[in-house]
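Standup, Tuesday
Yesterday: got the pipeline producing structure tokens again.
Today: sanity-check two examples.
Blockers: none.

Example 1:
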Amino acid sequence: MFSIGTLAKRTGTKVQTIRYYEQIGLMPEAGRTAGGQRRYAASDLDRLSFIRHARQLGFGLEAIRELLDLADRPGQSCSDADSIARRQLKQAAERIARLQALQTELERMISECAGGLVADCRVLEVLRDHSECLTNHDEIGG
């Protein structure tokens, strides 16, 4: 059995986050000692590690909830898990495309900056007037 502090250290998760996951039902409510301290089993450590890794890969809490539900039913087809992962991949690709467009626009703004007076600053000019942008970065992946 693990204390909440040990569980936090072993998974790299903040204690407050573990409590939050319990509140929203991603983690089961912990058993308690006679003194009221939370106690977690190895299965809780595995579950929290799963959640933490899924969060690191950018999965939202609802997608994680779906994945955990699937993981709790190991005899089911993994097609739903595959579908959730494909949805996450699509979202990641959209974010990457948006970031690449932002990078292109920032590089262009900086390269056009003459380093003169603020009154003539190209960076400030482009930020002031979105029509000066060459990329449509506000609509990519949004």
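Example 2:
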Amino acid sequence: MGEKRSNHTVYNVNYHFVWCPKYRHAILEPIKDSLEVSFRNVCDEYGYEILSLHISPDHVHLFLSAHPKHAPSEIVRTVKSITAREMWEQHEPFLEDYLWGGGFWEESYYVGTAGNVSTDTIEQYIGRAEHV
């Protein structure tokens, strides 16, 4: 981690996002591998750098760095909408037993900012949060 550069900007903007699938169903474990691939593809396509990703059965922790031109609400909307569509395309028979109406993620989410924090610190925080 550290400062990044673009044409006219030097920045170190990091976000910690947490969100759940609809109804907080514990459905992510069986689709974890394809969900992780989807997260990584979306972030690569949009220029978000994943610093840490943890997929629990009923929620996701995503710690990433993004250019300051991207609002946190834009980032989470993009990642959630694309991953939801891809999970329905790949796992519809499994998901329709738990979800209906095409939804996948809850609308709500948590976002926190973290400037110059190490990935190890975030991993320790996520590990503690898992036991709460």
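Quick observation on example 2: The mean pLDDT is 90. The first helix runs from residue 32 to 46.
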